[in-house]
Amino acid sequence: MNVLSLHHAVYESELIDGKIVRQHQSHYLDFHVDGRPLRDWFDHPDSVITALNRPWLHMLDEGIAELTGRRPDPRLPAGRIPLLRCADCGDLGCGAITARLDITAQALTWSDFAWENDDDEPVPQHPGLDFVFDLDAYLRTIESCRARVAAFPYDPLAHHGRDFLWPWQWGWRLPRR
Fold this sequence. Notes:
Layout: E1 4-17, E2 20-33, E3 36-37, E4 48-49, H1 60-67, E5 80-86, E6 96-103, E7 107-116, E8 123-124, E9 131-134, H2 135-143, H3 145-150
Antiparallel strand pairs: 1-2, 2-3, 4-5, 5-6, 6-7, 7-8, 7-9
């Protein structure tokens, strides 16, 4: 059996707010299987993270329900779940590492890994690779993440001491009629 653990990770990006470039950090729990980060197994962009992400705290229960098989993802074929998604928006349309989820009385299996998005056919990743977890240990690990994710730092991109500017206040004006 494989062992799933969750480790704190940070995704850093630049966001443009009007004429200001902001450095944004997104704190999340990353999947490690047998001590190795899940992302190391796949060819993917560096900008994919788990749904266990502090900025998406309001959707955390949905992510947990998908990972435990209690809620299917409506955009994926039956029995498939997203494991790693777009770090900027979490949308499957941007691309995601997905897996087939099989649950038995004592085990939970991730298999048939693929890179999927809304536009292209799924691209298989490591055919034949399966991760088999003890069901009780897996559920405890996933269910225990709520408090950890909620405790992560979160910057809702405050405007850092300046007034908010609407787009027409950035220096351009609407054309006159």
